[in-house]
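During the second year of the project, the team shifted from modelling isolated chains to modelling whole assemblies. The rationale, set out in the original proposal, was that interfaces cannot be judged from single-chain predictions alone. As a representative example for this report, we include one of the complexes processed in the last quarter. Its constituent sequences, exactly as entered into the pipeline, are reproduced here:
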Amino acid sequence: MTGRNTADIPASTIERLPQYLRCLLELQSMGVPLVKSDRLAGLCGSNAAQVRKDFSYLGELGTRGIGYEVSALIEHISELLGVKERRRVAIVGYGKLGSALHGYAGFPERGFEVVALFDVDPAKVGCTFDGIRVFHVDEAPRVVNELGIDIAIIATPARVAQLAADAVVEGGVKAILNLAPTRLVVPEEVDVRQVCLSTDLQILSFRIAQQEGSR
Amino acid sequence: MTGRNTADIPASTIERLPQYLRCLLELQSMGVPLVKSDRLAGLCGSNAAQVRKDFSYLGELGTRGIGYEVSALIEHISELLGVKERRRVAIVGYGKLGSALHGYAGFPERGFEVVALFDVDPAKVGCTFDGIRVFHVDEAPRVVNELGIDIAIIATPARVAQLAADAVVEGGVKAILNLAPTRLVVPEEVDVRQVCLSTDLQILSFRIAQQEGSR
DNA sequence: AGGTGTGAATATATTCACAGCT
DNA sequence: AGCTGTGAATATATTCACACCT
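Output from the structure prediction step:
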């Protein structure tokens, strides 16, 4: 079956596509035109069968006996991830974390453009950083809508993250990346991804404790 | 079967434990002594069956007809995650992101203590921030060992992340949380977790594209 | 020969549904 | 009566192994 419909691509495959894309861009920048599943697997920390299975959901992109054309894979995956045109992003909460994200080189490289910043601090509102204006969070409903912002990154303290989310949702944001360690309640059509570094540390801590205990 | 052995707790359950712990601490701070699976599920964005199944791996912690004692759950989960005593953490790369993490309130609250900072910038090496000293990355093998650091958080640019990892691995770090968008190669016994915000944005972007396409 | 594409087999995770305590 | 604990059923994900194309 040629997996034409994006709806029947497994979630686990989708989660790996950005990783593949990163490795493929690296190969391309090194001038590598063709790649085999086992090589790509090595670069991504995966395995050859997984790679082939994942790509098979995107269509028959490879050539038997040869491998995959790097540029064709990049094309297909970028298309699928919806990052061929730039996605417009806002950062809510312009403290240390927010400003670190604003300067993060990985975003523009991968098709994400920060087009607005939000905070509540009067000392910051109205300023521009690197050409991007800081608006008061109260203006988010209007600004998000006017600038056609798709995704908000929430980098506020946990206790105000829900208010921040409400404001950008009112403006019509379609997805939220939440860096505040709290669960957001949003309408069903808004997609939220939670990033919690403490959670990651705790998972690592578990595995350390497990190793220590087993000795 | 009473799941005494940590080794047979499913990975997916482990990944949810920090989330449960956060909600339980919140309940405790509100003075709630007892919680039922459905209530906790509501707080965590899960469902009651999942909660009960997850907890069943930790032992029989609940009381039928009544629910779970909040303090007992906190005790068990903290124990299991190995965060009852503080875990010693280093931050490698003390730019905006590194310093944002250093100030992140969630770490001390959850048992993680930042005890050393590393960078290569001569302007930073030797300084102390918030009582914590910045060492040169070259000193990491010694310092990590001397301070008994368990976990390193890598917040360097991607191109030097592997060097940073090599240095802390040499010092005997047991786990790495990698915020640089690159895959690290480390010895098998060192556990790495990758956080990549671009990846998260791309996954959100896919789901937006999918919604848009379906209309 | 040397690789992909993919059904079949296996492993893992989630959900259901109800027996078993309190 | 009410809620946990858990086998059984289902769904999802990974891995195997080989037919099939170049």
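Chain A touches chain B through 67 residues (CB under 8 Å). Residues 141 and 171 of chain A are 4 Å apart (CA to CA).
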